[in-house]
Amino acid sequence: AQSVTQLDSQVPVFEEAPVELRCNYSSSVSVYLFWYVQYPNQGLQLLLKYLSGSTLVKGINGFEAEFNKSQTSFHLRKPSVHISDTAEYFCAVTRPYNQGGKLIFGQGTELSVKP
Amino acid sequence: EAQVTQNPRYLITVTGKKLTVTCSQNMNHEYMSWYRQDPGLGLRQIYYSMNVEVTDKGDVPEGYKVSRKEKRNFPLILESPSPNQTSLYFCASSPGLAGGRETQYFGPGTRLLVL
Questions:
Q1: Which of A29, A47, A83, B92 shows its CA 20 to 30 Å from the CA of B82?
Q2: CB atoms within 10 A of CB B102
Q3: pLDDT tens, A67-106?
Q4: Is residue B100 helix, strand or coil?
Q5: Contact B100/A101, CB-based, under 8 Å?
Q6: A109 and chain B: CB distance < 8 Å anywhere?
């Protein structure tokens, strides 16, 4: 069975500092990996996704993530955060050809950017 | 504008009073899904639909029903709501499954309180 673990439930950081949000997954087969962001009182929107190819994936708003197969990780990074990045971030995994297109979500990480 | 809409956005009800949360998408997507979001648990899938008249259970289907009579609509029905169904609900859609590679587009959420 697949599972996703986001290692930090809350990450406070000062504006313009770098940030890394950690995500580990478990799966016995190849997976597709996603990061979604949820701004306050809004639905989720896609930040980036890894399907295949280059292990470094670039997304919107200056975020990037690196797929590490040996460590089964997909950590999200941004070199310099803004106040507007304050949101909850969800890592998610799905299997190729899985049943029902089910995304398995992590528990979420609340990123709080302080001035 | 391409979007997923949900109604109502906020709902307070009492135990046992049937309710329906509507979901509609204007992108001609085949795949639609319902999730519930609870603190510390991330998002969990309730039901999904791969096309008209095709629905199946997700991870937490107990106490919920769905129907897919038209491609654009995917209502969530709570026949006899209970307090443990108090949650934030999201509808999502995607063009298809494409083996799980497709991005899912989320509605703004419905916050439900069952007294």
A1: B92
A2: 19
A3: 998 999 999 999 999 999 999 999 998 865 555 557 889 9
A4: helix
A5: yes
A6: no
